[in-house]
Design a protein that fits this description.
- There is one protein chain.
- The chain is of the alpha/beta class.
- Helix content is about 50%, strand content about 10%.
- The protein is built from eight helices and five strands; from the N terminus they run E-H-E-H-H-E-H-H-E-H-H-E-H.
- The protein has a five-stranded parallel sheet with strand order 2-3-1-4-5, sandwiched between helices.
- The protein is globular and about 55 Å long.
């Protein structure tokens, strides 16, 4: 039996004192590198900077997540996504929110938006349907009435091609994670483009195939321009 359910809710904005910046994109797009470089940019300005990643790979939940991502532990795909979300809740309460309340700059390698892209991949195998997306948006705490994550002030989608992603991943010495198969990368690429189209005011696309310095420069320009407009 089908029952229609209507659900509309505003995204939860950051009204704390700090600045919340996220970097998203498929594996190998340069998120970790840009977190480090933009962190140094703000430290040079004398700002307190807190860097984090989601999901984490240490701590009670992080240890389990790390084993799952490496294929050492097996879990149903739905359980994996809720595990990610549990870690995200813990990270927000222990790291993100206190830092924002102190007025710090929080930089994160992935955030709540990953729940949509990876959640749909696990739920449907990569077929991006509006109804499936709504289920993820609600269940993963993005539009939920029960719990909402704060949406970053800036989310930068570092866009690189699937081919470039695979080239960079092959050059790494790290053990391959379960989502780093090319077939998954292709679906995640579709997912991030879908997300950018659906939330154009929340996500800023940056060409991640450019040199590291150029990517950093574009990110800093966007932040500087929009912050000056607010003051």
């Amino acid at each position: 039996m089908k029952y229609p359910v209507n659900f509309e809710m505003e995204l939860k904005k950051n009204n704390l004192g700090g600045l919340y910046i996220a970097f998203e994109g498929i594996d190998g797009c340069g998120k970790t590198t840009q977190v480090e470089r933009v962190a140094q940019h703000f430290r040079d300005q004398g700002r307190e900077v807190v860097t984090t990643r989601e999901p984490r790979k240490e701590g009670l939940l992080g240890d389990i997540i790390h084993k799952v991502l490496l294929g050492k532990e097996k879990l149903p795909t739905a359980a994996i996504q809720y595990l990610f979300t549990a870690d995200r809740v813990a990270n927000h309460h222990s790291n993100v929110l206190p830092a924002l309340e102190r007025g710090a700059v929080v930089l994160t390698d992935r955030c709540l938006w990953s729940a949509v892209v990876y959640g749909i991949l696990d739920r449907t195998g990569g077929a991006y349907d509006k109804n499936d997306a709504d289920v993820i948006l609600i269940s993963q705490g993005i539009l939920s009435m029960y719990h909402q994550f704060i949406v970053p002030d800036y989310t930068f989608y570092l866009k690189v091609s699937v081919e470039e992603s695979m080239r960079r991943l092959r050059a790494k010495d790290d053990t391959k994670e379960i989502y780093e198969e090319e077939s998954n990368i292709e679906k995640l690429y579709t997912g991030y483009n879908y997300l950018k189209e659906r939330f154009p005011d929340e996500i800023t696309e940056i060409d991640g195939s450019k040199g590291v310095e150029k990517v950093t420069s574009e990110i800093e320009k966007v932040i500087s321009r929009t912050m000056s407009q607010k003051t």
